[in-house]
Specification:
267 residues, two-stranded antiparallel sheet, 10 helices, 2 strands, globular
């Protein structure tokens, strides 16, 4: 019996042609391009990541136990599919939370990096006088950054640990290093504590925003109006940076309802 060659399901013509001498952008120019991003853009992206993490986590949490039970009740190919869906949603949730705290490359959209960039912008801006308000703003930004530091919060350290040793790549050390719960079972309370800390860190930033004229100017810049081709004015619709907690509640509700509807259809 001849075993057929393992082939792609796409035709050769479907594969894009990549120039032989082309390659991804190298780190120095990429770093320069990203460091030139407006601070308000960094904060908007950090905000979006946190809301994405809330949705991903509560969607996975709402599905986890039911998918495990359904996989036991329905043996065969469906059980394999259910286990894969369960593992994928949980891994996606871990990755989503971990992205909100990531500082590894300096090029991520995390809240810690956005706060550091904002602090640097304030310190180096020639148009921003070094008043008592400026110094207070810098101090409070640093305080909020400390809230997002995995080396100071065990639940955030756990999120980073799981991402690095389990979700991020396949490695042997995940089989040996069972910190901190003594086994390889994912600990939802620790994950959730880390996520809540990140939502509340952004909420702290919202409080700071109400106290700082510089930060208020940044938020207004993010919502500025521009001219359009029809001769009118277009305004951006964006979520207030002070709405982290109410938006987190909304994303949790939407995620849980989405999971409930998914399970109804699955059954």
């Amino acid at each position: 019996m001849n075993i057929p060659e393992f082939l792609s399901e796409f035709a050769p013509g479907d594969v894009p042609v990549i120039a032989h001498n082309s390659k991804p952008m190298e780190h120095p120019p990429l770093n320069d391009a990203l460091s030139a991003l407006p601070i308000e853009k960094r904060m908007e992206e950090a905000y979006a990541l946190i809301l994405e993490a809330v949705y991903s986590y509560y969607f996975a949490k709402a599905l986890d136990a039911d998918l495990a039970r359904l996989a036991l009740e329905r043996p065969g190919p469906l059980a394999s599919g259910l286990r894969e869906v369960r593992a994928s949603t949980v891994k996606n949730a871990v990755m989503a939370i971990a992205k909100t705290i990531d500082e590894a490359t300096g090029r991520t959209k995390s809240l810690p990096l956005a706060l550091r960039a904002m602090q640097k912008s304030i310190e180096e801006s020639p148009e921003n006088p070094h008043t008592s308000e400026t110094h207070a703003t810098i101090h409070l930004i640093d305080h909020i950054w400390q809230l997002t530091n995995p080396d100071r919060a065990k639940s955030l350290l756990y999120v980073r640990h799981v991402r690095n040793k389990w979700s991020g790549h396949a490695s042997w050390d995940a089989d040996e290093d069972h910190w901190p719960t003594g086994d390889s079972t994912l600990n939802f309370p620790l994950l959730e504590d880390g996520l809540v800390r990140m939502v509340n860190a952004f909420d702290e930033f919202g409080v700071l925003l109400s106290m700082s004229s510089y930060l208020q100017t940044l938020e207004k810049t993010a919502q500025h109006s521009t001219g359009n081709s029809a001769g009118g004015t277009s305004g951006r619709i964006s979520i207030s940076w002070q709405a982290a907690v109410p938006m987190a509640h909304t994303m949790r509700d939407v995620a849980q309802e989405g999971a409930r509807q998914f399970l109804v259809e699955l059954r």
